[in-house]
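Supplementary Text 2. Reproducibility record for the structural model of the 289-residue chain.

All settings were left at their defaults, and a single model was retained for analysis rather than an ensemble. We include the record here because the model underlies the residue-level annotations in Supplementary Table 4.
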Amino acid sequence: MTLDYFYGQAGELFSFFRIPKALFQEQRFQDLSTDAKTLYGILLDRMSLSVKNEWFDKKGRVFIIFTIEDVKRTLRCADNKATRLLRELEKFGLIERKRRGQGKPCLVYVKNFSSESSKESVKNRDNDDSCGSKTACQDPVKSRGIKKKETKTEMNNTNLILSDESEKMKNRELLEEYFSCSLEVDLLLRLYPDDEDTLYQIVNLLVDTCATNRKLLHIAGDDKPAEVVRSRFMKLNADHIRFVLKCLAENSNPIRNMKQYLLASLYNAPTTMQLSYQNQTNHDLANRR
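Retained model, structure tokens:
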């Protein structure tokens, strides 16, 4: 591939994601991964759509809707990495996710990266200047060139896209809440802190599989009806997940395709777990004789 050069002001013709320099220059962000910084810039960019569509909560705070699936699609990454990046941004206080329940997607608040470093200066200002600082807090959004005047067609297209995305995410959010509860994810995270990424990967895999529109799913070398797979996955509980984690830890062979391995393990867990425990019981009884 041979690309051409930029001439004159041609570079200004394109759209770019803007990542704040502070994320690279300030000491408090030095441990934030480059991928997380990139994702933060993408989330900042998405805020412009929220402002255009007046997506504000009762306190006037801007929010966006950006799921793990959106992160995967935008960064071309796997479930576990998408989950880790969002949690990393939460750890650094750069975003806040608020669950709404009832199958509705989470609201994501993109926090003001500059507010922490400007606290001292805000304290020393008088009341008039404090009002100005509130306006300045919105600069990261305004600096992306939001136009005040828009055509009717542009607004309608934007609303249509956001509406379609919301519809697609409703089922996923409902499934996420179902599996978080039925699998007792909070308990598993406390019992297996070292397997946090794997646990989130399992939940996301179950959600993706149950939310699919495909008629057949390839699992353990066979094409199985999606309804059968969905029904089986919906009956899994925390014990099944613990068994899958145990099998994964005891497996000494290299796993070439983790997704297919987990799908097969989860699908067969109810059967293999029962056989494994029965075999262990028989073994223990034989040794006592």
